[in-house]
Design goal:
Layout (H helix, E strand, L loop, with lengths): L4 H49 L1 E4 L2 E4 L16 E6 L2 E5 L14 E2 L6 E4 L5 E11 L6 E10 H53 L14 H43 L4 H26 L7 E3 H15 L6 E7 L3 E3 L2 H18 L3 E9 L2 E8 L9 H4 L16 H11 L3 E6 L5 E8 L11
Parallel strand pairs: 10-12
Antiparallel strand pairs: 1-2, 3-4, 3-8, 5-6, 6-7, 7-8, 9-11, 12-13, 13-15, 14-15
Length: 450
């Protein structure tokens, strides 16, 4: 099945143009052939009538008192011929026939109207018109036949010249019609291209709604897309509201349980508080997962966001010797919700600020279709064997320095939600280096199969 609309239109145009021009070829060829044949028929009829008008009976046979003055009739193989026949005997003929014998038995039907074919001077094929006449009345009347002829090649040459010019004209017409069909396809499908670009802009966060513009045929589709976007926003808002309600609903029971645990035995209290903390962690993880990626249509500049996060974290680290370095190269916008991205980058920066001794280097650049954010510190780092454990919830890969142990795990979840990857490695300064790679999708247009 052909799925390309452009290919369908092109194929339809080729078929329509080819069929139309074939009909034009056949029609014009038939009309011109009939016209040329009628012209020769008229000429031969006039010649035959002039010969019949000059016939009379002399000494018991038909004779001509005058012959046409056309010089072609006087030259051997001159191109125009006539002969007078009575009782299957040629009485007179034009000099142009020379020694050619014209007989009814040697004539065959032709494809050109009333003309017959016969062999003429120099072996060329002639087209003949036979016309019977009667001279006189009563018993003295005499019947005779006049043949007039011309070369068949002359008629076919005229037709061939016409067909050659007709073919050139039709080829030029086909080319012009093909260009017109191509232009029509481009112009006619342009609204669909603009519609697709607007959808791309909406997915990229550049537009919030489709505008009610374009041909009347696509406006219903635009209206339906706007309704779909509105319903999507309402569904997201309801989901966030429910998630928020769930989070608030859990806080009170967990707080009560924590207070009740204080009156329990030390061992039971510790166990209860540990379970309460585990419930809180899991609830936070599930609520975070439910919210991830819902605003993937938005576009965020990681470099700008990282700069703002660094300005926020600088005062929080009460250490004037800590050097923050930020390097941004090229266009580093990615399709991600700013809040999700801020949490992912913020968790990494916060982790680096906790363990760095004197330096944190942040480098953001575009590499091979990806935006790569690399954050390195000069702290103690994490052994290679513990890299996988560092991304698991509630596990501290190094010496615990506060927090819930969810920072890098949540960042990994955010990266996965947006099709990004999170990798841990060793920094050149000996500390931990974390690389966050986001795919760049400058044009999110789907390929349309033919």
């Amino acid at each position: 099945m052909i799925r390309s609309l452009r290919f369908r239109l092109a194929l339809g145009a080729v078929v329509a143009i080819g069929l139309s021009l074939a009909i034009v070829w056949v029609t014009l060829s038939r009309v011109f052939t009939d016209y040329v044949v009628n012209q020769y028929l008229t000429e031969m009829t006039v010649l035959s009538d002039s010969l019949a008008a000059s016939a009379k009976i002399s000494e018991g046979r038909v004779v001509l008192t005058a012959t046409p003055s056309d010089p072609r009739l006087s030259l051997p193989a001159g191109g125009r011929y006539w002969a007078l026949e009575e009782n299957d005997t040629i009485l007179e003929r034009s000099r142009s026939l020379w020694d050619t014998t014209v007989s009814e038995s040697s004539m065959t039907p032709s494809a050109y109207g009333p003309f017959l074919e016969a062999t003429g001077p120099d072996g060329q094929t002639m087209l003949l018109l036979s016309q019977d006449s009667i001279l006189g009345d009563g018993p003295e009347s005499r019947s005779f036949c006049i043949y007039t002829a011309f070369p068949k090649a002359e008629l076919e040459g005229a037709l061939m010249g016409f067909h050659s010019e007709l073919l050139r004209m039709l080829l030029v017409t086909a080319g012009l019609l093909a260009l017109a069909a191509t232009a029509q396809s481009v112009v006619g499908l342009a609204p669909l291209d603009r519609l697709r670009q607007k959808v791309t802009d909406i997915r990229s966060g550049l537009l919030a709604r489709m505008t009610d513009e374009g041909p009347a045929e696509v406006r219903p589709l635009i209206h339906e897309i706007d309704l779909l976007l509105q319903e999507r926003e309402e569904a997201i808002e309801r989901a966030r509201s429910r998630a928020s309600d769930l989070a608030h609903g859990l806080k009170t029971p967990l707080t009560v349980i924590s207070q009740l645990a204080e009156s329990m035995e030390p061992g039971a209290a510790e166990m209860t508080l540990r379970q309460v903390d585990l419930i809180r962690q899991r609830a936070d993880r599930q609520l975070q997962a439910a919210r991830l990626g819902v605003e993937r249509m938005l576009s965020t500049d990681i470099g700008e966001l990282a700069g703002k996060l660094i300005q926020v974290l600088k005062p929080a680290r009460d250490d004037a010797t800590l050097d923050w370095k930020l390097e941004v190269k090229g266009d580093v916008r990615v399709e991600a919700d700013p809040a999700d991205l801020a949490e992912a980058i913020g968790n990494i920066l916060d982790n680096a600020a906790k363990w760095a001794r004197s330096e944190i280097a942040v480098k953001i650049e575009r590499q091979d279709g990806e935006v790569v954010a690399t954050i390195a510190d000069d702290g103690p780092g994490i052994p290679l064997r513990d890299h996988a454990a560092a991304l698991q919830r509630g596990i501290h890969a190094g010496n615990a320095n506060g927090g819930s142990g969810l920072g890098l795990a949540i960042t990994a979840d955010i990266a996965e939600a947006y099709g990004a990857t999170l990798a841990l490695g060793e920094a050149a300064t000996g500390g931990l280096e974390i690389a966050l790679r986001f795919p760049v999708k400058t044009t999110r247009r789907a390929k349309v199969p033919a």
